[in-house]
Design goal:
This protein is globular. It has 13 helices and six strands. With 301 residues, it is an alpha/beta fold. Bound molecules: adenosine-5'-triphosphate (ATP) and magnesium ion. Adenosine-5'-triphosphate binds next to helix 3 and helix 6.
Amino acid sequence: MRRKDLLDLAHKLANRYRVTDGKNFRLRDFDPADTAWLKEEQKPAANDALREGVEVLSELQEMLYAQDRWAVLLIFQAMDAAGKDGAIKHVMSGVNPQGCQVYSFKAPSNEELDHDFMWRCLKCLPERGRIGIFNRSYYEETLVVRVHPELLQRQRLPPELVTRKIWKERFEDIRNLESYLSRNGVIVRKFFLHVSKKEQLRRFLSRLDEPAKKWKFSVADAKEREYWKEYQDAYEQMIEGTSTKDAPWYVIPADNKWFTRIVVAAAVIDALSSLDLHYPKLDEAGEGELEQLRATLLRGD
Ligand code: ATP
Ligand code: MG
């Protein structure tokens, strides 16, 4: 595919699932099984496009690194078995590991609980020139913690600060953080992998059937499924409360893994290619220095 066509395709796909203004956002308007204009039979062609996309991504990342001005933060959130790990693995497969860091945030430790809710994530923000990936993030603080209020109790917040407004306040704090980051050259893009309850069941069962996948399944995962509705409401309000132009959410259909990966790749390519990345140019003095260096090397000194 021509480079321009690939970038156009990425742009078109990214646009379709991007939410930049959460007002009136409704999760039910997004179908987890959607595959845009692509059909199941086009899967091989789609996979070819993904491979090309991964190459383009790798070139863009090299320039990001060399230019050393922008940082990129990609945040992934989803229900269990929606395919976060696979999407991260496939989309970032061509990227030089030196330019990319992945952090997974699990249930917080005692030390982490002794701090404000974003503390542990702020320590992991990407430096300039790098892509940082959060596999779960401070958004869990408006999801699992909201669905299970006892987790909020464990945070030992002063009681007068825990009011019914706490979730709205957290959304506001997150919006402010992300706006601060974008003003500092950190590009923030957030991905909600939207899987249906039916497809999650199918994947859980296949994990139980396949010895190589069994380890991925836990009683806790099955238990969280019982709170499906509460989670969907929490996700909806999270997207409603924290979608901005600077830090948009992508609501990505996750019932078909091949399609999920294409859209994630498209959104990352679209974000990076909008940055006008280029390799640093040397001025005349710099060029002269290199020419001298070449002469020295050739003399064998
Ligand atoms: P994943 O399910 O993302 O593939 P995993 O199965 O390897 O990861 P788990 O041990 O399931 O990892 O850890 C993730 C769990 O940690 C999730 O259930 C998540 O809700 C929980 N978690 C993450 N952040 C928080 C938080 N701030 N407070 C409470 N629980 C959290
Ligand atoms: Mg898990």
